[in-house]
Structures are given as C-alpha cells and as structure tokens.
Specification:
This protein is of the alpha+beta class. The chain has one domain. About 20% of the residues lie in helices and about 35% in strands. The protein contains four helices and 13 strands. The strands form three sheets. Strands 1, 2, 4, 5, 9, 10, 11, 12 and 13 form a nine-stranded mixed β-sheet that branches. The longest helix has 15 residues. The N and C termini lie close together (about 5 Å).
Length: about 220
C-alpha cells in the first residue's frame, strides 16, 4: 500500500476594512449556495454519512455565514497553494483542475473529488453530492480492490463567534471529508476557514485558505 500526505502551509489574506463594494484583497463574492442549516444522513448501514450543522441564531448570523461561504479565492490566491509542490504529476494535476468549469475553490482532483483551497458553500455542496452519488453505486475502484465495500463521510459546521479582543464577529467554517475504497485508494482531509466581519457586516479578513493536509493512498 502506498500512502502519502499532501500538505501545504495555510496562509492568511487580509485587506483593509472594505466598503460595501470592497472585499479582502484576493477575493470576490458569488451568489450564496443554498445549504440546509441542519442535515443528517446515514446510508447503507453507516458506510456513508453526511452531517451539516449551520448554527444560526438570527437573520444577521444567517447573512454572515452566507457571505463567508460565498467568498471565492482569486486565481492568484489559488496559485499560491501550489508553492512547495514537487513532481510532474502534481503540477499536471493542478493544471488539469484549472481547466474545470465554475468558480474555483479547489486546487486539484483526487479519486473523483476536488481537493479544496477554500471552505466555501460550493465546496460543501460538492462533497454532499459526491457522498450521495457514491452511496448509490458499486465501489468505483473495485477492479483494484476486489471484495472491498467503499465508504464516504462528510462533516461540515458553520457558526458565528464574537472576538472580544478585536470586537469583530467571526464566521468559523469547518469541513472534513473521507473516502475509502480499499488499501490502494483513499483520500481524507480536514479544512477550516475563518472570516472576520466589521461592525457594518462587511468581510475584512480571511484566514485559513490554502492547501490542507490531505492523506491519500
């Protein structure tokens, strides 16, 4: 069995306090992704699980979480995630992923799933759809792992906290995904993002975006 760890240092992108038309440097905003505030699915006796919890106390928190999930990294921010990559395979994988359609939050694909640079609403939706799709099909890599039952898990939480030092509200987004289809195919990671908002509800800083530590085999 070959097992590798793909790791990259997380970085912080901070902009000056923006007006309603200004966002943190290196980011743009898209329409909010419609995600459930609470979802729990257990499929095939627990081989596939989905857990989504968006802790929302009021309309203000709902808006802050939606905006934090809708902040997309620019191509320059995503390109920064390639720093430290070695080997033609990783470089080629990054280049191939750049050609995929849509507003990009990922840095490459692995075993049918995109690996994230940023925890966004669209990222959560991708893994939600991926787990559901996997649960309805045979092991996609059964030819390499005969007799193995595949499994997949998504866990996502979003909540708003008050920073007593800065006086700002922070949205904390935490995501984990795991897919196992045998000793020769697996991928798992945990990733997090924190978005700071000023008193006017404008995002002023994004923390955590970058390549997370990913375990693959």
């Amino acid at each position: 069995m070959h097992r590798a760890i793909l790791s990259g240092a997380l970085f912080v992108v901070v902009g000056t306090a923006p007006s309603s038309a200004q966002l943190p440097t290196g980011y743009y905003e898209v329409a909010p992704t419609q995600l459930p505030d609470s979802l729990r699915e257990v499929i095939a006796g627990g081989r596939f699980t989905i857990s989504i919890t968006r802790r929302i106390a009021n309309a203000t928190e709902s808006r802050l979480i939606e905006r934090a999930e809708a902040l997309m990294p620019s191509p320059e921010v995503i390109a920064s995630s390639t720093e430290g990559l070695a080997g033609d395979g990783w470089v080629a994988g990054f280049a191939a992923a750049a050609k995929l359609p849509g507003d990009r939050w990922w840095w490459r694909e692995w075993d049918g799933a995109l690996l994230p640079v940023a925890v966004t609403g669209r990222a959560v939706l991708h893994y939600l759809e991926r787990v559901r799709a996997l649960s309805g099909q045979p092991n996609p890599f059964a030819r390499h792992n005969p007799g193995v039952q595949h499994r997949a898990t998504l866990s996502y939480t979003a909540l708003v906290r008050a920073n007593t030092v800065t006086g700002r509200r922070e949205v904390h987004l935490n995501l984990s995904y795991e897919f196992y289809c045998g000793p020769l195919c697996a991928v798992s990671f945990t990733h997090a993002r924190v978005v700071e908002f000023d008193q006017d509800g404008q995002p002023v800083a994004v923390h955590g975006d970058g390549r997370p530590r990913v375990v693959v085999s």
